[in-house]
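FORM 12-B: Structure-to-Sequence Request
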């Protein structure tokens, strides 16, 4: 829940979301009607959640996902539900679903594009040249760590986390990478993406490595069907990353070429399932998605939000076993995530004590990360 003033979740709803609305307005010159709708949303999020508009194409879907929350205060329903619904309402406010000129215009695209065009990305892509000749085991570890730490590049987080984010020290609080690699066999691997740009690029490089070097037969890449949580990856973002890598040339260009071919031969399959933007945990996933995960030798869940949805967005004792919270999942699963919310399981008592002893925050700052897996 988010009803304790000053708590992390309360601040997301009452500080992060209003500042996000301001950033969206700065980034795009919306017309008067859109601005009025954004004003109305700004007011609404301090009070009662309104239902989707009568004419909304996805009204039935949201009603099926509702658990009696619509009509209550935004901060009195589960945090995951309120946060997800906020992004849905923001898209409505900017006219994303309505027939007319603003239909399909991603309000977060200016942020995503600026990041993808940045020099930091050039540097990261150039580093792939040296990695291409590294011994196999070294490459495995380097690519998984890049995909993991790429998760720090979450634009909703950057907007509000302060300028010193990049300087923070890196700490792995759990590392099941050996188990992860032993599960990534020659069959199918699912990767459930999180952010576009600097996170999706290393995810795509990891996918290429699985297909090209590790003998994985097929990768199914799940992305979001809609712009979501600012920087979450959509199919448009996958295509933008492929173009960016192709333009960079060198090893990045070769990776892009192989991935294009893999899409053409169905060795890399893209999915954009409606449930990927649902305000619910994966425990409630629908049959089609369950079948995908059940058919894979490994599903890799990227990022903080996917982690919350995977283990359940609850105040678990941090020593609760990861295998216990994911026992419902239909196949082997791994999480690659930097810690940006208060949910964490699968840690040893010693690790938790050592982290608490530092006296510094470690759960919500993006300074720590984990690799967890269960067979
Ligand atoms: O899923 P991601 O991109 O790693 O993180 C999403 C996130 O920034 O959004 C929420 C707060 O708004 C937190 O769960 C988390 O910090």
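FORM 12-B RESPONSE
SEQUENCE OUT:
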């Amino acid at each position: 829940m988010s009803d304790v003033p000053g708590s992390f979740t309360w601040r997301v709803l009452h500080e992060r979301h209003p500042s996000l609305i301001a950033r969206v307005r700065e980034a795009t010159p919306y017309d008067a009607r859109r601005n009025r709708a954004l004003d109305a949303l700004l007011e609404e999020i301090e009070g009662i959640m309104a239902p989707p508009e009568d004419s909304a194409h996805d009204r039935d879907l949201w009603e099926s996902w509702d658990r009696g929350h619509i009509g209550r205060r935004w901060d009195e329903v589960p945090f995951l539900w309120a946060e997800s619904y906020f992004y849905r309402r923001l898209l409505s406010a900017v006219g994303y679903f309505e027939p007319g000129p603003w239909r399909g215009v991603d309000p977060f695209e200016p942020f995503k594009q600026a990041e993808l065009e940045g020099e930091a990305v050039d540097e990261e892509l150039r580093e792939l040249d040296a990695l291409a000749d590294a011994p196999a085991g070294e490459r495995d570890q380097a690519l998984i760590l890049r995909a993991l730490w790429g998760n720090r590049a979450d634009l909703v987080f950057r907007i509000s986390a302060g300028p010193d984010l990049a300087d923070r020290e890196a700490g792995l609080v759990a590392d099941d990478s050996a188990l992860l690699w032993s599960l990534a066999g020659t069959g199918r691997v699912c990767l459930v993406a999180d952010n576009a740009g600097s996170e999706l690029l290393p995810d795509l490089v990891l996918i290429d490595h699985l297909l090209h070097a590790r003998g994985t037969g097929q990768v199914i890449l799940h992305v979001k069907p809609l712009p979501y949580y600012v920087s979450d990856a959509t199919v448009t973002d996958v295509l933008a990353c492929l173009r960016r890598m192709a333009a960079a040339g060198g090893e990045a260009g070769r990776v892009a070429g192989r991935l294009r071919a893999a899409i053409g031969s169905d060795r890399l399959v893209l999915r954009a399932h409606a449930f990927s933007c649902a305000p619910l945990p994966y425990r409630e996933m629908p049959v089609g998605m369950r079948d995908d995960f059940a058919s894979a030798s490994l599903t890799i869940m990227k990022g903080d939000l996917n982690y919350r949805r995977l283990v359940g967005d609850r105040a678990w004792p941090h020593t609760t076993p990861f295998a216990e919270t994911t026992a419902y999942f239909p196949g082997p699963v791994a999480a690659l995530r930097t810690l940006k919310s208060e949910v964490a399981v699968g840690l040893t008592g010693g690790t938790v004590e050592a982290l608490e002893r530092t006296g510094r925050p470690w759960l919500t700052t993006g300074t720590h990360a984990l690799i967890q897996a269960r067979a």
